[in-house]
């Protein structure tokens, strides 16, 4: 079975998805007129002016922080280190490229999730790729497969991976027993998870900006302390990407190694096209009251994850000179780099950072799984409690076990759901284009963009008109 799964992963991640995710990002960048570059300021404006109080959903800022909680995890600390070890400094350049084109993909899938969201039996907004597959493409079978893969990979296995990284970091920095770390982590997660998605959102909007801000502050301090080395480091990133200089010692260099490792790590990190972030994007009440506004917010999340947080790790490592032949890699390399700059306190800082990054990733990943349960009509108390207990059990299990084998199964599940999602959003690209034109046409007329479904009869199929009416808009404006 493991050989079969590894074979599936080899095909999906080395051929189908690495080109599919990048190709779809380029496709939407061109079709939407380089929206992520020309309208970057609009992303900031939408995020900072969101004041919706509709109790059926969470705020756009909360949706952003929950999606960042899932995106910004161990991959930003350990994954970047692996990319540098295998691909050299040039890998970072290709991570940037993937993130920049991926912003268009992130915008598109979250815009669709907003358009096709529904009001669940408990009066809350729910939506995501499974919903637009079923409602817009009349392919409920695809939604079922997608939801099952999402629950297995994000709701169960990936939380074990995060807890494993946290336990290892604390054991290395403080000598804490892994089982104790796992139990403490599960207990802390239970307090938030049993409060549901709204509790997760309130927790994330406080913790995520704080943890990301502190980590970026550390990177800024390191850059200032090593300012004379910065120009040479930036040149090594560009030169390594195009083979203009020999790779650093100990790095399996070359243009192809830099491109492949940078692209893979970038795709894993920002999750654009995976179909994960749209699950929480659909839960938000958009402000302005238009599907595209939440798409813009999530595109900005893709930028924060890779261009800011992942780059911070790259700067930390490259300015330390800690990459050595047959030396440390992954989380150990990131900790060694921090120790070069700040002494042992740097190693401890990274251990604490991974707790916050990993813990919030567990919460974000769980929120996606709970949303998928709604699509499968399993939103009753018993199924949700089973999911929550299963998630917490995997937190404890992941802390004490080697998770490489089960992680391969999660990779396969995530690969399947990403492939289905990419096909769906390309088929619905015309809808994304019309929504984008409508949004920016209103903006050019100095109007607050507002989407009313009755004005777009071509969207009748699968759109919940109770969400997109003048009355629904008025509801979002009430205190």
TrEMBL record:
Keyword annotations from UniProtKB, A to Z: Cell inner membrane, Cell membrane, Membrane, Symport, Transmembrane, Transmembrane helix, Transport
Origin: domain of life: Bacteria
Membrane-topology descriptor: Multi-pass membrane protein
PROSITE patterns listed in its UniProt record: NA_ALANINE_SYMP
GO cellular component: plasma membrane
Subcellular location: Cell inner membrane; Cell membrane
Record flagged with keyword Transferase: no
Transmembrane segments: 12-40, 137-161, 173-194, 206-227, 233-260, 299-323, 345-364, 385-407, 413-435
Pfam families: Na_Ala_symp
InterPro entries: Na/Ala_symport
GO MF entry, a single one: amino acid:sodium symporter activity
Stated family: Belongs to the alanine or glycine:cation symporter (AGCS) (TC 2.A.25) family.
PANTHER family assigned to the protein according to its UniProt record, in alphabetical order: AGSS FAMILY TRANSPORTER, SODIUM-ALANINE, AMINO-ACID CARRIER PROTEIN ALST
Record's protein name: Amino-acid carrier protein AlsT
Species of origin: Ruegeria atlantica
Phylogenetic lineage: Bacteria, Pseudomonadati, Pseudomonadota, Alphaproteobacteria, Rhodobacterales
